[in-house]
Amino acid sequence: MVKLNINLKDRSYPIYIDTDFNSIGKCIQSAGVNGKIVVVTDSNVDKLYSGKCVDILTASGFEVYKYVFEAGEKSKNLNTIKEIYKFLIEMKLDRGSALMALGGGVVGDITGFAAATFLRGISFIQVPTSLLAQADSSVGGKVGVDFEGSKNIIGAFYQPKLIYINVNALATLPERELKSGLAEVIKHGIIADRSFYEYIEQNLNKIIDLDENSLQYVVKTNCMIKGKVVEQDEKESHLRAILNFGHTIGHAVESVSNFELLHGECVSIGMVGAFKIAEYMGMVDKKVTKRISDTLTLAGLPVKITGLDIEKVYEQMFYDKKIRNSRLTFILPKDIGEVIQIKIDDTELIKKALADLSV
Predict the structure, then answer these.
(1) By the 8 A CB rule, do 250 and 271 touch?
(2) Is 315 a catalytic residue?
(3) Are 8 and 231 in contact (CB under 8 A)?
(4) In this predicted structure, what is the pLDDT of residue 334?
(5) What is the pLDDT of residues 260-309, one digit of tens each?
């Protein structure tokens, strides 16, 4: 087992990276959780891992309940949160209780938001089972739901008590979901660590084939990169914004596509869009843009979308949470391993880059 720590003073927490779920009970006890635990999961993950986790937690002495919602981004709304609240009241949870998010990014976001707001905040535990969640969304305390077609527009910063990652849970992940998660893995290399990006380039096949050692290294490195950023800027007042590389365009594409595309697929498209903007601004050479595009393609990710509605995507970007004074803010690359935040008012430049993303 590998253990990392996210250092946020009284909100600090450990990340455990293991190859099974066997130690989850002991790790939760070590975090000081001793009340009721409600395992929140979705209809896909429930069939795979909830029984095993509930059994381990019960054997560890916890009083355990389970809440299951329909899998998919379309469940990430206030109606699902309302139903979770009803269940928690029915189960008589108190402030000593905890919610455990067992699943991918949607499960983590929903569970974390419910925990942040129920009884003004109870403990929650992240047990991510998708690559996207293990490498990115479970770390950092961003929780929330979509609303009226806009991604993550309602939410909070609420840190978990701990994160427990079983890398072998990825073995049951559909191939498309695994590749979607690779977008966030590649993103971390682009924004902060050129050598890690090069490792991904050289080991894509091993990662996709679920080589255990490669997965542990990838997840550990991603958690370290994101953890360091979060430690310096927990609530995204400056540095943490770099983690949104590819997301300004990506979230807009995701919303306009009515969430038919997976999050990582949209981030992939958004990263290429960010490189295109940077290329047109003279910040990066087109050879670098092609290198990134080729890596994403080899990872099985889209870099363009058929019939992209440029006007709709452009307008949707103004619902982005990084908007200040109605000005679009982009995270743009200076090189692989280095990005900067820039406000852009040039509508034609942005639309030119968006046009490059359409087939």
Answers:
(1) yes
(2) no
(3) yes
(4) 95
(5) 999 999 999 999 999 999 999 999 999 999 999 999 999 999 999 999 99
Predicted confidence at residue 359, as pLDDT, reads: 87
Compute the distance between CA of residue 116 and CA of residue 156 in angstroms, rounded to an integer: 7
Structure token digits, residue 105: 């990014």
What crossing angle do the helices spanning 263-280 and 347-356 adopt, rounded to 10°? 120
Instruction: Determine contact, residues 252/317, Cβ cutoff 8 Å.
Output: yes
Residues 9, 90, 92, 120: which is the catalytic one? 120
pLDDT confidence band for 233 (50 / 70 / 90): confident
Q: Which domains does the chain have, with CATH numbers?
A: 2-173 (3.40.50.1970), 176-356 (1.20.1090.10)
Residue 247 burial (CB count, 10 A): 26
**Strand partners for 98:** 37, 123
243: left (phi over 0), alpha (psi -120 to 50) or beta: alpha
Q: Whole-prediction pTM value? A: 0.90
Instruction: Identify the three-state secondary structure at position 4.
Output: strand
Kindly list the distances between the CA atom of residue 274 and the CA atoms of 217, 267, 331, 348, in Å, as whole numbers in the listed order.
Answer: 27, 10, 7, 14
Catalytic: 194?
A: no
- Known catalytic membership, residue 263: yes
Q: Which residues contact 238 (CB under 8 A, 6 or more apart)?
A: none
226 is an active site residue:
yes
**Does residue 321 register a pLDDT over 90?**
no
